Please model this.
Amino acid sequence: MKALILAAGKGTRLRPLTEDKPKVLVKVKGRPLIKHIIDDLRSLGVEDITVIMGYLGEKLMDALEDYDDLEFIEQKKQLGTAHAIGKSSFESPFITVNGDVFMHRKNIERAISYFKNEDPEAVIGSFEVESPKEFGVLKVDGNRVTDVLEKPKNPPSNLINTGTYVFTPGIYRYIDKTDVSERGEYEITESLKMMLEDGKDVRHTRFEDYWIDVGKHEDLRKANNLAAADKTEVV
Model:
């Protein structure tokens, strides 16, 4: 299994912390978010890791210089997740993880294991929240995904899309057909919708351990509090 980490974002809602560094270098328990992810991937045997960089990319490369075998690809303009993933060119299945999340390693392990055991076209990591309206929400039938909805007014479930995916190389065909959205971005959710319309087997696996999208200062505080309380495997 190979891995793609999306790390091009600016993190404007985390200013002033992100004025001089990429969002993924914001620290939880004294360690950048992206390093937690890289270490977790490697502990699971994923050695072939590619990082999509953008905002202050040179600083990101400098911060990760202690990892001597990462590959970096530049996304000069942040034009959405489908655009970012489309910068890669894997010829075998790969896991995609947002570099600005803080989550337990078991969630990554669960996504990889589910893909290997069930062999679908794609796996989406899902997470149950009380208020899903602020997220992309999954409509599901058991473990099968039937629709992906972006911030719906009437969510069909409390299961949100965590932005953690396992894809086959077949995803690139749908990325190539993805049009720009109203937000001016090429969104992977639209690529997934096209897969579903074509009858492709898209599944979800529920993340049972902690997962936090570190987008705001309150999320960062929550992540640090959680890391301080977790006595297991947080680096």
Q: What stands out?
A: Helices lie at 33-43, 57-63, 81-85, 105-118, 171-176, 188-197, 217-229. The domain at 2-229 is CATH 3.90.550.10 (Spore Coat Polysaccharide Biosynthesis Protein SpsA; Chain A). The chain has a mean pLDDT of 93. The chain has one domain: 2-229.
